[in-house]
Input
Amino acid sequence: MSGYRKTLTHFLIEEQRLRQGEGVLTLLLADVMTACKTISDLVDHGELAGALGTHGTENVQGEEQKKLDVQSNELFKFCNTIGGHLAGMASEEEDDIVTVPAEYRGRYLLLFDPLDGSSNIDVNVSVGSIFSILRCPEGIDTPCAEDFLQPGTEQVCAGYTVYGPSTMLVITTGDGVNGFTMDRNVGEFFLTHPDLTIPEETKEFAINMSNQRHWEKPVQRYIDECLQGTEGPRGRDFNMRWVASMVADVHRIISRGGVFMYPIDDRIREKGGKLRLMYEANPMSFIIEQAGGMSSTGRERIMELQPKELHQRVPVILGSKKEVERIVSYHEEADQEA
Ligand code: AHG
Ligand code: MN
Ligand code: MN
Output
């Protein structure tokens, strides 16, 4: 019975005792989890809750918004405004930062992709939410967008929830990665997957193969060598998966290893990539690195990038360490030749 397992709250209190922290994060995460539990309920009810279909609007990045994108964004904002822990929020679905009224203001900044994998909502495939927590810079009461532009190495906490057959939370506060499963009947997250680590090597890759003709040479080379299997230079067969929900693909890699790539390609070069640095790449990189994996653009460690704008996009290559190292070395070789 789940009641005999550690709850997320107990886990965080214990972590904070060990580090002699103040407990603010525990309360802040309780608010984030209220949003996630409610989104999980919406996903669970689907059409019964009027959660499917398009909203008929576009977000700041020119992407069509689904009803669930908008509903999830509103829930994140509502649940996290009055808790007293946040100085401001930034969302993939908002043009500008979300200000917190002065009477509720706290010391942290919350950034989120409220609903990741939007293209999967209407076809009943796993989606999720991703979040990242930063400190509001010292001496700033009313943060502006620039105050959010901190490298991923500054994150205090990052996590994602995946709304799959089970709803799970995977989280790091910089001391390893732990996984929790939501008990719907009890309404709590219970620790089910302590100390998650990613195997260094893998035989599985995740990439949208339909973009192959647009990729750069090093990515072409890596995938080509994987596809050659036992007859190629890798000397073994590889398997491929692509859910098209980053949360679900990353969760598989956290669970059994693998490498995930949304590389730069000619189609999206002007935008800088497909995935968003602040809401997707940084929090996932923090989790992957804390689980013993590696995360890179192919040329730089993602967590060390100095963000230039809130909705910045970046190439993402993450997962099992040895494979990501190999892909990075292919980029180095190609750049040297060029
Ligand atoms: P979002 O739904 O938040 O816009 O993110 C979708 C992202 C990511 O979850 C996924 O890995 C990728 O886009 C899928 O892109 P393709 O449809 O191009 O494969
Ligand atoms: Mn996303
Ligand atoms: Mn999204």
